[in-house]
Amino acid sequence: MQDPALSWTDDLPVCHFSGVGLSTNQIYREDGNRREAHDNEDRNFHFRHDSCFLYGVFDGHNGTRVAEFAAQRIPAELLLGQLQPNFADEQVKEALRQAFIGVEKGYFESMDGLLAERTTCQDRLPDGISQYEAYQKYPDIISKLQELDKNISGGTTATVVLIYNNKLYVANVGDTRAFLCKTNPEGVLRVIQLSYDHTIADPGEQARLEQVGVDVNKLKILRRVGNSDCTRCIGDYHVKGGYKDIDILSAAKVEPVIADPFVDGGIEIDSTCAFMVIMSDGLYQALTDATGTETVNGDIAKMVAQEFGQQTTLTGVAQAVVDRVVRIHHDTFMTQSGDKKDLCRKRDDITLLVRNFHFPLSVQQRNMQSPSHPPHHLSGFPANVYKSPSLDTSRQSSSTDSPITPTNYLLSGPNLLGNTTEVQTNGSSNYSTSSSGEMQLFSHRHSENSNLELDAEGKVKAYVDFSEWYTALDKMGEEQREALYQELMPKSIYDPIQEEPSIE
What we know:
This protein is of the alpha+beta class and 504 residues long. α1 (65-79) packs across α2. The protein is built from 16 helices and 16 strands.
């Protein structure tokens, strides 16, 4: 079950309404080169199974063992008959909670052999021997103990989103984050954080740790709980079964770090749902470190919306946003100095999963036969979700070469519709008041004398004659036509970064 090459989840259908962008951790150098500090420890899945859609992002620490285990076992805990069609919201949420608890129990059971071997090694050392003396007299035993401790100490964050019976549910431990973007009739994009950040900085987690006997003030100074700054995770035996051996945790009455997830949901998936994002902390932390933003969820939502207007696939959307944040982070290191430069000297692994609901991709714009016809919808998306914004020609600017789409039309700046890129914090989520936001996506500005005539199908009649265009197109050869399509294809607004392989 722990070997990804033999994973049963390989047979599950991938959800094609979603895409994933990735980037491995990096340590930067002054000469522009970079290297990985360790192998990529993030894992993810995005599956469709019968009437369910299941998504997960896992950020491992001290190795990939737990992240791989959880990414394979959580789908098994949820998709093999545990969910019944008549389940109410509370029953679905309880199934999610039990999945997390069951996965951790299964992981620790799989470690029984390692724990037994560790105990045997410890029994071979004389009682009362100092660590220094043990290194000198029993190097083989100490080396074996270090190897076992490395395997035992690994853990992972986990954020899982389940869409079942057209409702969205979320469960998470740690600081891997999920948010949902919804639009209202005025075209305002509202960013709602779905997950809860279980970190030392969170007041709720501080109160919980204080109740079990942990000195929170010392913990805030150390900024670490064992090998991580997360107060909840799956795995990591040392801060659970072995927490008495850690000074800062030894006074606790019960295990201070837990796998009990935050669970919420029952959100109806309707026409107001635009898209959903799940991201490891490497993404939003890199952007926060580089820019100092206090509305990081809103900033990332805006980037995703912009890339919907530039890319032709959801994987392209997710990867483009990842590459963009990576470039911002690296450029900050190369151009800044002092504390800012030190803050951006390295970054963690990055995973970004984007799930689309009712947001048009660039490919939909290219499928338009004429400006009077809405684009053909992608398989699985309603045909009526596209609303073409009215073009205010008096404010249109020719400063951009990109084609007008619902996203870049409204997000390209004040030359088109004023300051539409500004994100305003609105505290729309109880769990993320500083990083949620909203922004204007669609703005309908008809002149007072506008009178749009509809045809028999209820569509706006064509207002531009494209007959000459189509005549010229018909006269072109196949190669000329293909070259024209490639030239007209929307391009990303930046070049992706080519990262260097790890230096052994």
